[in-house]
Design a protein that fits this description.
The protein is mostly helical. Helix content is 81%, strand content 0%.
C-alpha cells in the first residue's frame, strides 16, 4: 500500500487522538461524580475506589495483549473492536442499576479501552515514518492525553451538576461512533512483519499480579493491614510477580521482552509513568473527597475549582511536546516532577480552613506538572524501539500509566482512609496530610529519574537495545527506530548547551 499523503496522515492522527481523548477523559471524569455515585448507589469509599480501579486495572492488565493482538490480526481491526467495546461499556455504565453493575460495566469499558491507545500508537508510528514528523505526531498525541485527562474533572462537574452522574458516560457515545466510521473509511490496515506469538501464562500472571495487589490495597483499611487475608493477598501477588519475571526471562516470545528494560530511558519512563500517574490519581481522588465531603461543595463547583489545573495542563501539554522535539525529554520531566512535588507540599497542611488562594495555587502548579509529563513519557518509552516493536513499547508505557493510576487510588487513598478517625467530614483533612507527602515523594522521584535517564550514556543503552531487537542488517532506510530521532535531539541539545 502506498504511503498516505500529508492530509491523510493528519486525519489518521486525528482519528487516533479521538480514541485517546475518550479513554483519557474517562480516567478522570469519574472522580468528580464519586460522591453522587456514592449517594445514589449507597457505596462505601472502598466501593468508590473500585469504580476507578476496575477500569485502570483491566486496562493495565490487557494493554500488552492488545498491542500484540493488533500487530498479529491487524491494527485497524483491533482498533475498531476496541471502539465497539468501549462505546458499549460506556452505555452500560450509564444504565447501571447498582454498584456491582457499574463496576462490571467499567470492566467492559476498560477491555475496549485497552485496545485503543497501544494500537493507535502502532498506527501512528507506521503512518509517520520520517523521524522528525513522527516525533511531532507523538508530541500531539501526548498533548491530547494531557488535555483529555485534565478536562475530565471539569466536564464531570458540569455534567453531574446539570444532568447527573450517568451523563459522564454519555459523552463517549458520539465520539466512539464517529471514530468507528472514520477509522473504517480512512485508517489503513497494518500488521507487524513478524508478529509475536501469544503468551497466555504471562498474561494470566500479569492479571493476577495487578488485580490481586490492587484488591488487597483497597480492602486493607477495612480488613486490617496485618489481617491474614491482607497478608495472604500481598504474598500471592508477590509470588505472581516473581513467577512472572522468571517466566518472561525464559519465554521465547514474552508478553514483555526483558531486553526492553536494558534501555535506561525505557526503564525510567515506566517508573516515571507510574509515579506521575499515581500522583494524578491520588491528587484527584483526595481533592474530590475534600471539596465535596469536607467543604460540602456541589459537583459543579468542585469541577470549577480544579479548572485552573485543567487550563494549565491544556496550555502546557503542547509546549511539552515541542520541548521534547526540540530539546529532548529532560526539561519537561524536571519541570513536571518539581511542580508535582510543590503542589503536594502546598497541600501538606490541608485543613477545612485552608485559604482558597492556596488551593488555587496548588491546582495551578499541579496542572503545570501534569501538562509537562505526558509527552516525554511516550517519547522516551518508544525511543530505541524498531517500528515492529512500537506497539508493544507504547503498550508498556500505557500500562505503566494505568498501573500508576491504580496504585495511586489504592495506595494513597487507602493509607489516608485508614487514618481517618470519625466521619470523612471531620477527619479527612488531617488524615490526608500523609497522602500529600506521598505525592511530594513521587514528584521528586520524577526529577531524579528525569536527570538519570536523559544523558548520553542512557541514550547509548537505548541504541544497544535497538540493535538487539532488530539487527542493523535487517533494517531498511524506511524503517528507522525512534532512537534515530532521540539521538538527533540529544546531539542538538548538547550543541545548544555548548
Amino acid at each position: 500500500m502506498p504511503e498516505p499523503g500529508a492530509q491523510r496522515r493528519t486525519l489518521i492522527l486525528a482519528i487516533c487522538c479521538m480514541s485517546l481523548f475518550v479513554v483519557g477523559i474517562d480516567n478522570t471524569i469519574v472522580n468528580v461524580a464519586l460522591p453522587a455515585i456514592q449517594h445514589d448507589l449507597n457505596a462505601s469509599v472502598a466501593g468508590l475506589q473500585w469504580v476507578i480501579s476496575a477500569y485502570t486495572v483491566v486496562i493495565a492488565s490487557l494493554l500488552l495483549l492488545a498491542g500484540s493482538t493488533g500487530d498479529r490480526f491487524g491494527r485497524r481491526r483491533t482498533f475498531q473492536v476496541g471502539l465497539v467495546l468501549f462505546t458499549l461499556g460506556s452505555l452500560l455504565c450509564s444504565l447501571a442499576p447498582g454498584l456491582g453493575w457499574l463496576v462490571a460495566a467499567r470492566v467492559v469499558q476498560a477491555a475496549g479501552g485497552s485496545m485503543l491507545n497501544p494500537v493507535a500508537m502502532g498506527i501512528i508510528t507506521n503512518t509517520f515514518t520520517e523521524p522528525r514528523e513522527r516525533a511531532r505526531a507523538i508530541g500531539v498525541w501526548g498533548a491530547v492525553a494531557g488535555v483529555s485527562m485534565a478536562l475530565g474533572p471539569v466536564f464531570g462537574g458540569l455534567l453531574v451538576g446539570s444532568i447527573g452522574w450517568r451523563g459522564i458516560f454519555w459523552i463517549n457515545l458520539p465520539v466512539g461512533l464517529a471514530a468507528m466510521a472514520l477509522a473504517q473509511r480512512f485508517v489503513p490496515e497494518s500488521r507487524a512483519a513478524r508478529p509475536r506469538r501469544p503468551d497466555p501464562l504471562g498474561q494470566v500472571l500479569m492479571v493476577l499480579l495487578l488485580g490481586l495487589l490492587t484488591f488487597t490495597l483497597i480492602e486493607a483499611p477495612d480488613l486490617g493491614w496485618t489481617a491474614p487475608r491482607t497478608l495472604a493477598g500481598f504474598l500471592v501477588a508477590a509470588l505472581a510477580g516473581v513467577v512472572f519475571v522468571a517466566w518472561e526471562s525464559r519465554c521465547a516470545e514474552p508478553l514483555i521482552d526483558p531486553r526492553f528494560f536494558r534501555s535506561v530511558p525505557f526503564s525510567a519512563a515506566t517508573v516515571i509513568a507510574v509515579s506521575g500517574f499515581a500522583s494524578l490519581a491520588g491528587f484527584l481522588f483526595l481533592n474530590t473527597l475534600y471539596l465535596q465531603d469536607v467543604l460540602g461543595y456541589s459537583a459543579m463547583k468542585a469541577g470549577c475549582y480544579v479548572l485552573p489545573m485543567a487550563v494549565m495542563a491544556m496550555v502546557l501539554s503542547p509546549v511539552s511536546g515541542r520541548l521534547v522535539g526540540g530539546r529532548g525529554p529532560r526539561p519537561p520531566l524536571l519541570v513536571a516532577g518539581a511542580a508535582m512535588a510543590v503542589a503536594g507540599l502546598l497541600l501538606s497542611g490541608l485543613s477545612d480552613r485552608t485559604p482558597v488562594a492556596q488551593l488555587m495555587a496548588a491546582y495551578v502548579v499541579f496542572g503545570i506538572g501534569f501538562g509537562m509529563i505526558n509527552a516525554p513519557i511516550t517519547y522516551t518509552a518508544v525511543s530505541g524501539m524498531p517500528r515492529s516493536q512500537a506497539g508493544v513499547a507504547a503498550a508498556v508505557a500505557s500500562t505503566s500509566r494505568q498501573t500508576g493510576q491504580s496504585l495511586g487510588v489504592a495506595v494513597i487513598v487507602s493509607v489516608v482512609v485508614s487514618r481517618v478517625h470519625g466521619s470523612l467530614r471531620s477527619g479527612f483533612a488531617t488524615a490526608s496530610h500523609t497522602g500529600w507527602w506521598m505525592i511530594v515523594g513521587f514528584g521528586l522521584l520524577v526529577v531524579v529519574l528525569g536527570i538519570l535517564s536523559t544523558g548520553a550514556r542512557a541514550v547509548q543503552t537505548a541504541t544497544a537495545v535497538a540493535a538487539t531487537l532488530e539487527p542493523t542488517d535487517r533494517r531498511t532506510p524506511s524503517s528507522p527506530t525512534m532512537n534515530d530521532t532521540m539521538n538527533d535531539t540529544v546531539n542538538r541539545t548538547t550543541n545548544n548547551t555548548a
